[in-house]
Amino acid sequence: MQDGAGGCSFNGNLTIPNTKVNLFTVKYTASNCVTTSEALAADRNGTYTGVGSYTPADGEILFVGNNGKIGAAFVGTR
Questions:
Q1: 66/24 Cα distance (integer angstroms)
Q2: Strand, coil or helix: what is 41?
Q3: What is the mean pLDDT of the chain?
Q4: Average pLDDT in the 42-51 region?
Q5: 27, 47 Cβ separation under 8 angstroms
Q6: Contacts of 53 (CB under 8 A, 6+ apart)
Q7: At 32, which helix (H) or strand (E)?
Q8: Long-range CB contacts (within 8 A, 24+) of 25-29
């Protein structure tokens, strides 16, 4: 996946530790990021870890993560 605004490419995976709970963990790498008015490229690139959830009724996935310097959030729908 690529972020059009910041030029980042993302690659990673999610793990569902318990199928009875609507929670998953994420780990992904951001690369080729560019400097923006919010953050330097060197700070934006790196490995992010976080958690997320899926709302079937809305078809919405949400996750948040950080790399120790930058926090990121993603919301997507089907």
A1: 15
A2: helix
A3: 91
A4: 96
A5: yes
A6: 22, 23, 24, 61, 62, 63
A7: none
A8: 25/49, 25/50, 25/51, 25/52, 26/50, 26/51, 26/52, 26/63, 26/65, 28/65
Q: What letter represents residue 48's amino acid?
A: Y
Query: Which amino acid makes up residue 9?
Result: S
50 alpha-carbon distance from chain centroid: 8
Q: Whose structure tokens read 């976080």?
A: 50
Quote the pLDDT of residue 62.
95
Tokens 């990121």 correspond to 72
Q: How confident is the model at residue 78 (pLDDT cuts 50, 70, 90)?
A: confident
